């Protein structure tokens, strides 16, 4: 196969810049010559191993995928062509791989790579907060840099526990910083539509940007549950539910932990049965 000399190599620290891209920088030529000398010496010594088992590389790539790093991104990070990794997963599946490819892929640490996909919780909360401020979703599409249909879809993805692109989350976060606290009516949103948006959000107890202003450290935390729009009894019922479920406590003990009478907790759980536990005393 002829070398491709019409493209720039992704980097100059592997053999591919010489073999695949026709690079002839002195340091790259020396690297290739040294590799070839080592190869010849290994052949003479009966120690030449041109290929290694591909399964560890395949497992590592699957692990990287769970961290949001695609095969293409892994190839870029490893300084190799994505085509060299495709045969590891597509029929006919390759069971061996060149040692330098294996070393480059196995050296990728997912903790040191910016993920391509992230949890959608914070993105959904930012959109919901803007709607609660009076921004209709269709008016948010342009400042968010998204298709109109994708704005509500991001909320759905959060509810379904599905990740989103990190670039999308960054777009929404940037727009949120610009729009939070501004009046939608000063940006082309009619009073009627702004009121409809606020009512829509209020019916779903979506917190406003004002609520999140002092809680930006937890807006992206899926484990944080905002208590926006909840009455005292509902908050008590919610907290009692968590205490009783996590600690196996009865109502009397949970009430004492929360600093309320058991009768108050009984009324709170009666008013909000979704927080009641069948095993509670």
Structure description:
It is a single chain. This protein is an all-alpha fold and 281 residues long. It has four domains: 48 residues, no CATH class; 61 residues, 434 Repressor (Amino-terminal Domain), CATH 1.10.260; 96 residues, no CATH class; 44 residues. It is 52% helix and 3% strand. The chain has 14 helices and four strands. Strands 1-2 form a two-stranded antiparallel sheet. The longest helix is centred in the N-terminal third of the chain and has 19 residues. It is elongated and about 85 Å long.
| Average of per-residue pLDDT values | 84
The spatial strand order of the largest sheet comes to 1-2
Q: Spans of 5+ residues with little confidence (pLDDT < 50)?
A: 1-5
Give the strand content: under 5%
Rg over CA atoms: 28 Å
Can you summarize the main beta sheet? 2 strands, antiparallel
Give the H and E element order: HHEHHEHEHHHEHHHHHH
Choose one word for the global shape: elongated
Number of strands: 4
Structural class: mainly alpha
What helical percentage do the residues reach?
Answer: 40-55%
The CA-CA distance between the termini, in Å, is 77 Å
Name some characteristics of this structure:
two-stranded antiparallel sheet; 4 strands; 281 residues; mainly alpha; disordered N terminus; 434 Repressor (Amino-terminal Domain); 4 domains; 14 helices
């Amino acid at each position: 196969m002829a070398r491709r000399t019409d493209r720039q190599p992704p980097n100059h620290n592997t053999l591919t810049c010489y073999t695949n891209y026709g690079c002839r920088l002195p340091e790259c030529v020396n690297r290739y010559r040294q590799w070839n000398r080592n190869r010849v010496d290994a052949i003479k010594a009966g120690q030449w191993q041109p290929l290694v088992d591909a399964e560890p590389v395949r497992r590592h790539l699957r692990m990287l995928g769970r961290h949001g790093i695609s095969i293409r991104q892994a190839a870029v990070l490893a300084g190799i062509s994505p085509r060299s990794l495709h045969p590891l997963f597509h029929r006919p599946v390759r069971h061996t791989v060149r040692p330098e490819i294996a070393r480059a892929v196995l050296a990728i640490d997912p903790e040191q790579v910016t993920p391509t996909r992230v949890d959608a919780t914070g993105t959904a909360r930012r959109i919901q907060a803007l709607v609660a401020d009076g921004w209709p979703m269709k008016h948010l599409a342009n400042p968010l840099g998204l298709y109109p249909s994708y704005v509500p879809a991001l909320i759905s993805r959060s509810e379904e526990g599905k990740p989103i692109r990190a670039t999308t989350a960054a777009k929404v976060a940037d727009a949120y910083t610009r729009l939070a606290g501004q009046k939608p009516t000063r940006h082309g949103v009619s009073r009627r539509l702004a009121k409809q948006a606020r009512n829509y959000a209020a019916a779903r107890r979506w917190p406003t940007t004002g609520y999140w202003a002092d809680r930006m450290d937890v807006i992206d935390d899926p484990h944080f549950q905002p208590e926006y729009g909840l009455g005292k009894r509902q908050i008590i019922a919610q907290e009692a539910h968590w205490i009783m479920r996590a600690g196996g406590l009865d109502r009397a003990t949970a009430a004492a932990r929360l600093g309320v009478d058991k009768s108050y907790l009984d009324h709170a759980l009666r008013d909000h049965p979704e927080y009641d536990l069948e095993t509670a005393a």
